Amino acid sequence: LVYPPLKLAGTETPTVSPEEFRRLTPAQYGNLFFYQSQNDHRRLLIIARAMVLMMTLCAVGAVVLWSYQLFGKSGAWLAAVLCAFEPNWLAHGHLAAADGLA
Fold first, then answer.
1. Banded pLDDT at 98 (limits 50, 70, 90)
2. pTM of the model
3. Which of 40, 59, 74, 90 sees the fewest Cβ atoms within 10 Å?
């Protein structure tokens, strides 16, 4: 979900040996990728977060459309308000992680 736009943005992956790659934790590799390579980490985080935000907006749109089909205009408005203030989507809908859609 997040990787294709980052690859299209021309990111460089850190060069590590296979032994070192097996030894690194995901957090350590992420630190290498974002902060110790030639990548502009601010730009990459914006791109990654934008993709997840678009997926969250698509999910909200699907819920609103489904509610409209089932309950009409008032049901769609209620679904939109409930989705807009749903704590999990507020907390995770803008992060570069799949937690908000899970």
1. low
2. 0.69
3. 74
What backbone phi and psi angles, to 5 degrees, belong to 28? -65, -40
Residues in contact with 94: Cβ distance below 8 Å, sequence separation at least 6, in sequence order: 49, 52, 53, 56
| Separation of alpha carbons 97 and 12, rounded Å | 20
Q: Could you please report the per-residue DSSP string of 7-56? A: HHTT-------HHHHHHS-HHHHHHHHHHSSSS-HHHHHHHHHHHHHHHH
Tokens (6 digits) for 64: 């609103």
pLDDT digits (tens, 9 = 90+) for 18-72: 999 899 998 898 888 888 888 888 888 888 888 888 888 898 999 999 999 999 9
Highest mean pLDDT pick, 24-33, 75-84, 93-102: 75-84
Sorted by where each begins, the domain ranges of the chain are 3-101
